[in-house]
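User: quick one, sequence for these tokens?
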């Protein structure tokens, strides 16, 4: 089971999660396990929710599964015969990995202070999630969630950090209160050792609460200096999990003292919506990447090229380099398509080396294109010369045609056409030089 439920482990309320289709009880937090007489999750494995929670032999007649939907909490009162007391139940649906789960919170109605806190917390969560889920993109949803959380908890800053491929942490989303200096640009690729102690806690399902920064001066000096530089006095940080792996964390800085008592509960509940939005964002990015990228070379395809051209500004200097990998058909025929693919990839690597900062596209089986905005003519010529040298070093030949215009007034399409003509001239000269009949195999 994913660690997503571990957000609720330290909550004082009873929390349990059931599979809505099978009625399997898949999770109980520590308070619920203790209340129902269990010591570990292993003891509830493969047991039905109605067997444990209600001591029934069949699904409960008051089961609310059919009334639940994601992002909305349903509440109702119920006298639990097992607990022998009146409880107020809050339930919602959570979808993860294709399954539907019923997440339920049970509150003791006899504790008026806790009840008031719960009602306020539930109203805040519902309102924030409702507004955030109305946004057009997952990134906009995340921005709204952070702003909502930051303001609701009277904090100075709310943020999301995601682990990068180097093991460091990137501050990917940030909200700051009026008058507070943003830190996002200064917190990219934070070295792993800075947050090492936090991640050790995350691995066992713990979150981080620092009420006074000076408390960690000796125990965590690297993090102390990192937070001190940002004028952070206190914070609450919640881990973010995906399929059991810690993918980052989110939190708030310098919340008001009056919100500290319920901030952790609110942040832990909201963490599910943070993770859900991050996963949707990643899926959209992947789909866009697949629709815009050539899968062999990992540069843009024709769709990406058209979008790139539409984004160019008028009046820019513009350079075009049109490339054709010569001899590809012969390599495919004689050595197989794997060898042909390698030839294309090797040729593209040379193009990336010399024109990687510009728009690169594969527009045909053996045709590659570089569109260079804001480039000087001398720079273009020098890069083309370097490309020829790099190709020669790898025993690869590409026919090349280049065009440059100071203000791009002729239009991108016309420059591409002219560069293509020059490429065909270079290709013809190559075949003539080596006495190759292009209609026959090499």
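Assistant:
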């Amino acid at each position: 089971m994913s660690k997503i439920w571990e957000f609720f482990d330290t909550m004082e309320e009873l929390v349990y999660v059931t599979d809505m289709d099978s009625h399997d009880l898949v999770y109980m937090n520590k308070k619920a396990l203790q209340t129902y007489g269990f010591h570990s999750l292993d003891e509830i494995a493969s047991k039905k929710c109605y067997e444990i929670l209600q001591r029934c032999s069949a699904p409960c007649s008051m089961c609310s599964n059919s009334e639940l939907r994601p992002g909305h909490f349903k509440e109702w009162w119920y006298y639990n015969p097992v607990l022998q007391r009146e409880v107020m139940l809050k339930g919602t649906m959570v979808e993860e990995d294709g399954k539907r789960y019923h997440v339920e919170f049970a509150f003791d109605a006899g504790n008026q202070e806790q009840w008031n806190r719960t009602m306020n917390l539930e109203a805040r969560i519902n309102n924030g999630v409702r507004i955030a889920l109305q946004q057009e993109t997952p990134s906009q949803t995340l921005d709204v969630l952070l702003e909502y959380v930051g303001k609701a908890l009277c904090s100075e800053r709310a943020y999301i950090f995601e682990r990068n491929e180097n093991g460091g942490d990137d501050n990917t989303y940030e909200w700051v209160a009026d008058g507070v200096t943003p830190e996002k640009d200064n917190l990219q690729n934070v070295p792993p050792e800075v947050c090492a102690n936090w991640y050790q806690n995350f691995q066992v399902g713990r979150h981080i609460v620092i009420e006074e920064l000076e408390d960690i001066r000796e125990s965590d000096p690297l993090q102390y200096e990192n937070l001190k530089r940002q004028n952070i006095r206190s914070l609450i940080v919640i881990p973010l999990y995906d399929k059991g792996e810690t993918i980052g964390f989110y939190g708030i800085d310098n919340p008001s003292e009056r919100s500290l008592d319920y901030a952790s509960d609110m942040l832990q509940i909201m963490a599910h919506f943070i993770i859900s939005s991050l996963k949707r964002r990643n899926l959209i990015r992947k789909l866009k990447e697949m629709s815009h990228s050539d899968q062999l070379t990992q540069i843009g395809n024709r769709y990406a090229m058209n979008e790139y051209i539409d984004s160019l500004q008028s009046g820019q200097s513009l350079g075009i380099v049109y490339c054709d990998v010569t001899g590809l058909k012969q390599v495919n025929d004689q050595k197989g398509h794997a060898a042909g693919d390698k030839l294309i990839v090797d040729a593209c690597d040379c193009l990336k080396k010399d024109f990687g900062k510009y728009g690169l596209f594969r527009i045909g089986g053996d045709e590659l294109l570089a569109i260079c905005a804001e480039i000087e003519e001398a720079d273009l010529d020098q890069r083309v010369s370097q490309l020829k040298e790099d190709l020669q070093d790898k025993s690869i030949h590409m026919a090349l045609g280049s065009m440059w215009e100071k203000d791009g007034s002729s239009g991108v399409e016309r420059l591409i056409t002219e560069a293509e003509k020059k490429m065909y001239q270079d290709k013809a000269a190559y075949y003539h030089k080596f006495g190759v009949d292009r209609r026959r195999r090499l």
